[in-house]
């Protein structure tokens, strides 16, 4: 009689552990890049950027354009680094506006 109770307790414990660990993983990253824009994008066309989640299989930068589109780019590309530096310089905190 003790064996079925022990088996049931082990089963319930394993089910609880699986449920907790799946809940901790979350739903996954919102956006990962499968293909990349290889051509440089003009600075005036881009309004912001963000890095993709660390859970994505390939690291990438998502640029948001003036038109609202999102472009994927490789973070190692020289033009991507330049564009990120430009965008970071545009929005320095505490900088006074000329308006």
Automatic annotation (TrEMBL):
GO terms for cellular component: extracellular space. GO terms for molecular function: chemokine activity. Residues 1-23 form the signal peptide. Belongs to the intercrine beta (chemokine CC) family. PANTHER family: C-C MOTIF CHEMOKINE 3 (PTHR12015:SF183), SMALL INDUCIBLE CYTOKINE A (PTHR12015). GO terms for biological process: immune response. It is found in: Secreted. The lineage of its organism: Eukaryota, Metazoa, Chordata, Craniata, Vertebrata. Keywords: Cytokine, Secreted, Signal. It holds the Pfam family IL8. Residues 29-87 form the Chemokine interleukin-8-like domain. This is CC chemokine ligand 4. InterPro entries: Chemokine_b/g/d, Chemokine_IL8-like_dom, Interleukin_8-like_sf. It comes from the Eukaryota.
